[in-house]
Amino acid sequence: MKGELFDVCFVFHVDYNYVDELRKNDISSILGSIFFTLHDLLPNLPITIAPSGSFIEWAKMSDSPFIYWLKDMAMRGQVELLGGAFYEPFFSIIPFNDLLGQLELLTEVFRDEFGKKPHGCFLPVSAWVEGVIEPLKKAGMSYCLLDSRLFHQASLRIYEPASIEHNGKTIFAIPLESSLSAINEISPEDFYKNLLNLSQFNNSCLNIPVTKEVLNACLIERNGTSWFKQFLALIKDSPINITHVGKTIKTKRTYQQGIISSNAILSGKVINTSIKKSIFIEPSLANLYSKIFYVHSICNQVRGDKARKKAALQDLWKAESSIFFNLERKNSDIEPMLFQSAYRHLLLAEKQARTQGIFSTSLLSYDFNMDGIKEFLFQTENMNMYIHNVGGKVFELDIFSVYKNYTYIGEEHSIFLDHLVGKDDIQNILSGNDESITTRSVFANNFYQDVSQDKINMCVKFESAGIIENSGTVVSLKKIYNMTNDGMQLQYFLKNDSKNNLLSNFMMEISLAFDIAGKKRSKLTIYSEEIIKEIPAESFCKNLTFLSVPWVQLQGIDNKIRFMIELNEEGSVILIPIYKKYAETKVENIVGIRLLFYWSVMLQPGRDTEKTVFFKIFDSKKKRKGKKICV
To answer: Which of 582, 425, 408 shows the shortest CA–CA distance to 504?
Structure first.
């Protein structure tokens, strides 16, 4: 009779992540109802539960009985606990030794809190790549759960486990049938009939993932009964057997074999490719991914200090959480906060990996963003400034005292991006159409050749050239970065290399995170036409222009970080608000500011002009010292 049984398993993934924290989601009530009912009222209902590491941390801090209930149900055999990576990253994209570390960390917590070692593994969005089999096996995992649609793509039967292999390592994959997840919308009788039909076709098991809302709806009693009580009564003396996921393997003696290629489920659909490809489609996600690997390399260079390395890895692993990538676009309204939280953990990890007290200012050349081009990193004790040859721009500015990347503002922006534009382009910008400065700009998309670098005086020199589309005028630009103790000095030398006179506008773009929502707001101060002007938040819904500007000051909402931009020659500046992605153009949705500094230039053939910009970063807790400038 045992061989004729049709196993049915209910799988409940429980998590409390940064999104729940940001949105202040109170899950205590619904989880309290679920765990109390399972523990006290339905002790004969087997269920498989996959608690994340973040949930366990939250449950312990909230002083709830959830850990006790889970442990008691696990010890009496009612609940099977599934393991996983502690902070639930996409398994297929993080370094495998990070994955192994997170798997082992959650296993250790399971042993301490529940007295059990997990043998199965839950993968967020079934983000699969064959290479994860090795770290899963090293962590003691015998099986993992994958969406049944991945089985279908691999020509495997979707109602029984499969043995899958990679480089000689094998693991059992168990299919999850998400199409039946909404069991609360099906009567127990109809669901029972569906199961009987499935059991007649030599199928061995059905594993159904359920959300907390669905599970709670099926456990709540109405008129003296509940969905699960009715279902348990129906399956009595039937071939339907409710069990745990792990037991579905033990009931079989032979298994189907196959290969499941890289895949994932996003927004309920099979993406039919590696999740890494979905990440690299969007530059901001690709840069976050690259930053993770760079910080991973730094953390793993720590030698002789296990406590420091462990602390650094802990923050790195937090940054690897899949929730920060927002690939399903469920949290677009809070995406800037998600990214800044990820960068915060990465900067914390990088800071902790540095040897305390002996860090020295440096200039590095390395392919940080994995695009095949070596970028430059100006690095001080309290700042990282990454410079790319394309555009000769700063594409990441990290301030360690607040652990923030000031160039990520809902999407990637830059500092010191150069343009050469006409009067019509400026009028278009003021009227709200700023596309021309990127589509028609002479320098913004150019490759800047690094012609020299001085690692002692912290100086890099770039050169680029271009042609003005309408007139055919050839121009060249020299750009020199000089790191100072409190920021960066930038020199420009714009030259007319043609036989025609040059009449245009040289423009430099700076984009910075700028919070104006809420009671506390960032402050923007401009010295224009010999008058100091503070720009109110209400004025940011339209593009503004100011003339005869020698300096601009931007102060953060915490009054800790202050940016001062000083010009050696007065220029004009246009302010453009940066809004949250996919959000309405309202003041409360502004997350950054674009500062377009520009000067009118008139150059005869062979002549050049020089502009110098002093970009200073002041930290209220740091004392400044002088530093030699490279010339």
So the answer is: 425
Q: What is the pLDDT of residue 583?
A: 72
Q: How far apart are CA 532 and CA 554, in angstroms?
A: 13
CA angle 231/210/138 to nearest 5° reads 120
CA dist., res. 508 & res. 441, Å (int): 11
pLDDT tens readout for residues 99-139: 999 999 999 999 999 999 999 999 999 999 999 999 999 99
| Tokens of residue 279, six digits | 């990440």
Condensed to tens digits (0 to 9), the pLDDT of residues 510-537 reads 999 876 655 566 788 999 888 998 887 6
**CA of 575: how far to CAs of 71, 408, 473, 539, 557, in Å?**
57, 18, 29, 10, 19
Sign of CA dihedral 82, 88, 91, 92: positive
DSSP state of 444: T
Give the pair of three-digit tokens for residue 505. 């506008």
Is the separation of the CB atoms in 444 and 419 below 8 Å?
yes
507 strand-pairing partners: 419, 598
Dihedral of the alpha carbons of 167, 168, 171, 175, in degrees to the nearest 10: 60
Dihedral in degrees, nearest 10, Cα atoms 533, 534, 539, 545: 40
Q: Please, which pLDDT band fits residue 626 given cuts at 50, 70 and 90?
A: very low
**Lowest mean pLDDT segment, chosen from 1-10, 201-210, 541-550:** 1-10
Q: Please say if the pLDDT value at position 600 is more than 90.
A: yes
Crossing angle between the packed helical segments 66-75 and 28-36, to the nearest 10 degrees: 30
Predicted confidence band of residue 588 (pLDDT cuts 50, 70, 90): confident
Closest listed residue to residue 600, CA positions, set 551, 547, 527: 547
Pairing of strands 205-210, 169-176: unpaired
Q: What are the DSSP calls for 110-153, one per residue?
A: HHHHHS----EEE-GGG-B-GGGHHHHHHTT--EEEEEHHHHHH
Q: How far apart are CA 130 and CA 443, in angstroms?
A: 43
In DSSP terms, 163 is beta-bridged to 172, 257
- Report the distance separating Cα 44 and Cα 37, nearest Å: 11
* pLDDT tens, position by position, 170-186: 999 999 999 999 999 99
Give helix 53-61 / helix 96-114 axis angle, nearest 10°: 40
Q: What is the pLDDT of residue 516?
A: 60
Measured from the Cβ of residue 347, the count of other Cβ atoms closer than 10 Å reads 23
Residue showing tokens 């495998």: 96
Query: What distance in Å separates the CA atoms of residue 543 and residue 558, rounded to the nearest whole number?
Result: 26
Query: What is the maximal distance between C-alpha atoms in the chain?
Result: 97
Q: How far is CA 256 from the centre of its chain?
A: 37
